[in-house]
UniProtKB/TrEMBL annotation:
Protein family membership: Belongs to the YciI family.
Residues of the YCII-related domain: 14-105
Pfam family, any one: YCII
Name of the molecule in the record: Transcription initiation protein
Domain of life the protein comes from: Bacteria
């Protein structure tokens, strides 16, 4: 089952002072296991462009549409047997401690 894993900032990071997991080791391990199909860090939110169509008019604005302190800073496309495996992958990502991870399964459009 495919999951989109959104890597997000959070206003309340973990207070645990133990060493963080290494992101390069996380990527290498999940790539080797075939669980991570793709992923990338995103440019800063200041580089975002929002596109909307209202009454047939295209409206383009700088920045994200939503006003929020949390933002998506990256993504990973996962292939996991089930949600439990996807949660296991997400919990070991370094940003699970300093940010938050959102897992969303791909919709079954068939």
């Amino acid at each position: 089952m495919k999951y989109m894993m959104f890597v997000c900032t959070d206003t309340e990071p973990d207070t645990d002072q133990s060493p963080e997991p290494d992101i390069e080791a996380w990527v290498a391990d999940n790539d080797a296991r075939g669980r991570r199909l793709d992923g990338h860090e995103l440019a800063p939110v200041s580089a975002a462009t929002t596109v909307r169509v209202r009454a047939g008019e295209v409206l383009v604005s700088d920045g994200p549409f939503a006003e929020t302190k949390e933002m998506i800073v990256g993504f990973d496309l996962l292939e996991c047997a089930d949600l439990a495996e996807a949660v296991e992958v997400a919990r070991t990502h370094p940003m699970a401690r300093n940010g938050r991870i959102e897992l969303r399964p791909f919709a079954d459009l068939g």
